[in-house]
Model the fold of this input.
Amino acid sequence: MSFIKVDATSDFSFHNLPYGIFSTPDNVKHRIGVAIGDQILDLSVILSLFRGPVMSKHQDVFDQPTLNAFMDLGYEAWRETRKTLQLLLSANESTLRDDVSLRSRAFVHQSAATMHLPADIGDYTDFYSSRDHATNVGIMFRGKENALMPNWLRLPVGYHGRASSVVVSGTPIRRPSGQMRPDQTRPPVFGHSKQLDIELEMAFFVGRRTQLGEPIPINKAHEHIFGMVLMNDWSARDIQAWEYVPLGPFLGKNFGTTISPWVVPMEALLPFAQPNTLQDPEPLPYLQHQDAYTFNINLFVSLKGQDMAEAATICRSNFKYMYWTMKQQLAHHTVNGCNVRPGDLLASGTISGPDPESFGSMLELSWRGSKNIDLGGGETRTFLKDGDEVTITGYCEGDGYRVGFGPCVGTILPALQH
Done:
């Protein structure tokens, strides 16, 4: 399909073409790239080749240090850009293929690049849209009879997170400190979190901005969903358990959220769409859509301790287990007139499936610390230890190709002394 050789197991096939922000030792400027195989195509070098009716007027967005300006152009600009990229990278197109000088300037090996956050993230919203996860947590804290709160099946529950602590894959995460109340018969104590956890999530970047007071109707929601990343929304369970009533997560969540650097465009994922989860009771009309917007994305979480020779896979899940779709999340988020801006990040919440191996948090995998997670070689965990490296990977499987996201990695550093 492309003149760039791509291994069948590569996340970055010709069918993918995700966007990211990178720099190199010889050029520290942050610039927009597209991944294909083990290469990055530098769009700042070839911006003059975007000559379509929309992008010919906006070539300058590819000379920016983030994706925000490109995201703000909207759906038709994204589609036109993707078609141009597919043409330029195709095996039968000579513009790049046969221009040795241009190719030498336009392509960078991924191993030579440093990846950065794809966008300036102005706002970050975290949803709670996996029924299996919400049920598991509800059973732990409230019992089977009250596992789901009365609103959960009626609307996509969410909260506003902290955008400043969203970091790119590879950034170490410091163990947080805060108030906890491990003994309910005694006053709270201050200290380092002893129940540091992962949360397997995915997130999407919002594209074209809206004005304050302007809802996004559900039949237009796809025009504002630019693309998806993997996410690890680290969580300090002991801090969160004490602080979250009545306003929800705060210090237990805002110390770090890790995302993968490559943003996979929705058009690359549409071939992997499947029928949405049957929702009962039927949502209110503003949340109803019939088109398939649930995606078959295989997800994996591995953990490698400091003394482990190799990582152990602790979770195998899938994005298709989500109850609420991204369209429903965005329509609900804005139905009150809340405006969105390019680069806003909206996350799924922990993704858990029906089987124990598909539980997307250590809270569930260890069932609130009551049983050990076996990592092999005598290593076990209930929650994270200092030095643990957690890697999330995910991909869609096509016929002889993958559409993947690259790794989302974070390592736990010891807490600072107070």
